[in-house]
Write a structure and sequence with these properties.
The chain is about 30% helix and about 30% strand. The chain has four helices and seven strands; from the N terminus they run βββααββαβαβ. A seven-stranded mixed beta sheet has the order 3-2-1-7-4-5-6, with helices on both faces. Helix 2 (about 45-55) packs antiparallel against helix 3 (about 90-105). It is globular and about 35 Å long.
């Protein structure tokens, strides 16, 4: 099983295999998120491990943490999350435990949003302008 972790510091996507061997593929990323890089990028392997543990199919960062408005001392982290339908356990429990684990790991509040439930077109437009892939596990069925 493979999954991708986006490393915003080096503008790279890292594909990590289950046996922890890494292959690096170049991917163009936003270059204006320097503040986010120091607090989140160093945690990417741990975030990937949490995603695997809680059956996350896709995780994206959005909002202030993706750009120059991010304030390490005050900003929270906003994530779009799609859970894998085939993963064992209650989706509600996995959602809550993922949020709690991310908050503990990152040391700040975390908001999780299912992108399939965004109904406000203005909010969706704002989210789409800043979304950045953090984790993507291919060949999964996302839960709606």
């Amino acid at each position: 099983m493979q999954f991708k972790v986006m490393d915003c510091r080096a503008s790279l996507a890292v594909t990590i295999e289950r046996d922890d061997r890494a292959v690096v593929d170049a991917v163009a990323m936003k270059q204006d998120n320097r503040a986010m890089q120091t607090s989140l990028a160093s945690q990417l392997p741990s975030i990937a491990a949490l995603c695997e543990r809680y059956g996350v199919a896709h995780l994206e960062l959005f909002g202030s943490a993706t750009g120059p408005d991010f304030k390490p001392e005050a900003s929270d982290f906003d994530f779009l999350v799609e859970l894998d339908r085939q993963a064992p356990g209650s989706r509600a429990r996995r959602w809550i435990e993922l949020a709690e684990s991310l908050e503990k790991l990152l040391g700040r509040p975390v908001d999780l949003v299912n992108p399939h439930y965004i109904r406000n077109p203005y909010f969706l437009q704002s989210v789409n302008q800043s979304r950045t892939v953090v984790y993507d596990r291919p060949s999964t069925q996302a839960a709606v």
